[in-house]
Amino acid sequence: MLTKNMVVGLVLFFATAALAQNELPRVVENGFAAYQESGSQKAIESWFKGSPLENEAAARVKMINVLSEIETAYGKMSGYETIRNVSVAPSYQRVYMLIKYQKGPLFAVFDCYKTEAGWIVTHLNFNAEAELILPAEVLAGHS
After folding, report:
1. What is the pLDDT of residues 61-115, one digit of tens each?
2. Distance between CA atoms of residues 4 and 21, nearest Å
3. ∠ CA 103-134-22, rounded to 5°
4. Beta partners for 98?
5. How would residue 142 be classed by pLDDT, with cut points 50, 70 and 90?
6. What DSSP letter does each residue of 69-91 carry, written as one string?
7. CATH code for the part of the protein at 4-139
8. Which residue pairs, CB below 8 angstroms and at least 24 apart, start in 96-102?
9. Would you state the pLDDT for residue 85?
């Protein structure tokens, strides 16, 4: 028979495990910190660090150009919000983000993979059109 302390312990254990699975991977947070402090080039370098994209100059330039175009139209980046963090497997997360600018949002998706060294971004995409980034159920208001 389970005692009251055992039940409380189990509830806390499972709640902590669920929260840990939905934490934003540090690589994503670090990229946003770099963006706010040093601009889009440092953000992309941070997001690509350690991943297969790290040495892909064309991909890096493409992403920096996208962010530069958005900044020209929407103004300076002012923050970000997590829309959804999907833990597909213990070592794979898909993170949907809203990047806040002075004149409007940019939507992003980060595919993150947990290596022995930590989380890396294996794929990244931005678009000002929500329907090109976010799942339909999110746009329909379903969690």
Report:
1. 999 999 999 999 999 999 999 999 999 999 999 999 999 999 999 999 999 999 9
2. 26
3. 105
4. 81, 107
5. confident
6. HHHHHH-SEEEEEEEEEEEEETT
7. 3.10.450.100
8. 96/133, 96/134, 96/135, 96/138, 97/28, 99/126, 101/70, 101/71, 101/74, 101/75, 101/76, 101/77, 102/74, 102/75, 102/76, 102/78
9. 97
The residue type at 43:
A
One-letter amino acid identity for 13? F
Domain boundaries, the chain: 4-139
Nearest alpha carbon to residue 84 among 141, 3, 1: 141
Strands (E), 24-142: 77-89, 92-101, 104-115, 118-127
Q: Which pTM was predicted?
A: 0.83
- Residue 66: φ, ψ to 5°: -60, -50
pLDDT digits (tens, 9 = 90+) for 31-48: 999 999 999 999 999 999
Written as six digits, the tokens of 136 are: 């339909």
Gap between the Cα atoms of 93 and 41, Å rounded? 24
